[in-house]
Structures are given as structure tokens and as C-alpha cells.
Amino acid sequence: MVMELCSGGYLYTRDPYTEDQAARIVSGVINAVGYMHEHNIIHRDLKYENVMFVNNGPKAEIKYYFPFQIQESLILGLVKNICQT
Q1: % of the chain exceeding 90 in pLDDT
Q2: What is the pTM of this model?
Q3: Catalytic residue set
């Protein structure tokens, strides 16, 4: 698997957050999950380690790591796609 370099670390490395920072991060995660749901993809492993910062800047862009794994329910046609670690 090849991923973009995110040298700013993940959510644990920047804890604690201001209310504004937390709102920006949570909004981004919700938007990313909403996008996946619109495309019939389910993420079953949301966690701190899957939200990473591109650099160490205070307003660094956030990247969301969503690895894919085929599940039995996908094969059975219960859902179209599942995303989890």
C-alpha cells in the first residue's frame, strides 16, 4: 500500500485541541464519512490513528486514512463496499 507522506502526525500527537480546532477536525471527519456513505462504502474502524496532518503547521491540511477490506456481507450483496483496518 502506498500513501501520501503526512509528517504532521495523527490526532494523538496534537492533543489537546482548542474548540475551533476540534470543530474543524470533526467536521472534516464527518464530511469524509458522509462522502463514503454516499458511495455505499462503510467504514467500521474510525479512530485517532486514521486522521493525519499533512505537516506540523497549526492549520495543516487533514488527511483521512481509510484502508479497504472485502467482507462476507459485501460478497453476499448486503452492502456494496466496506472500509476498515
Answers
A1: 13
A2: 0.68
A3: 45
